[in-house]
Amino acid sequence: MSYSVKPASGLGRLGEGLGEGLAQQLPKEIERVRLSKGLENLGKEDFSGGNQIQNLAKIYNIPGMTPEVAKLLQRQIIKQNFLNKKPTGAGSPSEQTLPTGTTKQEKPQTEKQENGFATPEQLKEYRQNIQRVPGYNDIKSLADDYLNQGLTEDPQEALKFAETELTQNRQAQQTRNDEFKKGLNDRLKLDLQGAGLGDFKDLAGEIQKTLVEQGEYMVNEGGLSPEEASAQLSQIALNLGKATTNLNETGSWTNMFRGSGKKETDLREQKKEFQKYGFGEIFDDMVTAKMGFTPLLTAHILDPLKNETLLKLIPKSNSPLKKGVRATDLSENQLDNIIDAIKPSDNLFSIEYELRKNHYDVNKFKKRLSKLVDEKKKALSPQQERQQKRPITNSPLGDILFETF
């Protein structure tokens, strides 16, 4: 018996086609779901500790992974590991070719002084910051920005770009600083000379140097424009000049026989302007030069000794004098007690004035103080260190004349 197979109807052929399509589509859909699930699980993995071979094994272990997707994943892992890397110290042990430097430490801001000037601590920190070479932490921070902004996908390229930019910025900043300081220095030199400090050239030079340093800080850290900083400092130079003019008047020959009390009052008032900007010591030197005083009398007038404990340790001796000095001078133990009572705020010249007034040997005091300082048994403030190095003035004629009237 023979059978004949009837051709399929149109609907039958359609069903057969759909079946074949589903048979082909279903494995692809399963593969896509598995790949998606694998990528999702991969996102939860920690790749920071593994090497490249281990990372590749995890990637290619995902069903349906293709070389193109694997390459993208590998680049993303390298990039993310770089971004997650915490800077350690001044340099990176894995990047020895990178420049190293001191990393910028976050420190609490020190308040400015009443005159608006930066404190010595702020100036010191500022100088350290502008002199240092960009370190690995600085470079990596900028490289992270490049990567996050999509400017590059290669961490090594980002590091190279960042290092170049930071180096160029540092050089440009230094050039701008040098140009500003030169212009300000020339301007202040003329301002100070015109204001009356020309007779005190060395001291005026110290003031000029300090004002230039403050000007640089005002522009780079204080938010002032170069023009604003220059105008402000020129006004300070003018104010100092007015006080200097008054000092010259106080020390003029026409006022030679004027009462000492009035002169002392005038000198204290003039010093306030200098002291306002941290130039108190410089003014003391100007008074010493102009008035013909020893530094001891200048200190006694402008910064008298107020340490009551120390004053009580200097006995009012009535022993006879020998060449102007007490025959019975202070003992070593007495000197040690005096030195031990010295506070950082005490003016050494004022102490020496009190010793001289009572006819004790000032040189003996200075030698004993030097010995204790050398032996680390006594610490001095920076101002006291400068005063200790000054030799004794053996001609107090100006002091005698002043105290006579």
Rounded mean pLDDT is 79
- Helix/strand-derived category reads mainly alpha
Biggest beta sheet summary? 2 strands, antiparallel
Q: What distance lies between the first and last C-alpha atoms, to the nearest angstrom?
A: 158 Å
Low-confidence stretches: 89-110
In total, the number of strands is 2
Residues in helices, as a percent range: 55-70%
Roughly what fraction of the amino acids lie in strands? under 5%
Strand order of the largest sheet: 1-2
Principal-axis shape: elongated
Radius of gyration: 40 Å
* Number of H- or I-type helical stretches: 17
Order of helices and strands: HHHHHHHHHHHHEEHHHHH
Overall description:
There is one protein chain. Helix content is 64%, strand content 1%. The longest helix has 40 residues. About 5% of the residues have low confidence. It has a domain of 114 residues. It has a two-stranded antiparallel sheet with strand order 1-2. Strand 1 and strand 2 form a beta hairpin. It starts with 9 loop residues before the first helix and ends with a helix. It is mainly alpha-helical.
Compact overview of the structure:
With 405 residues, this protein is mostly helical. Helices cover 64% and strands 1% of the residues.
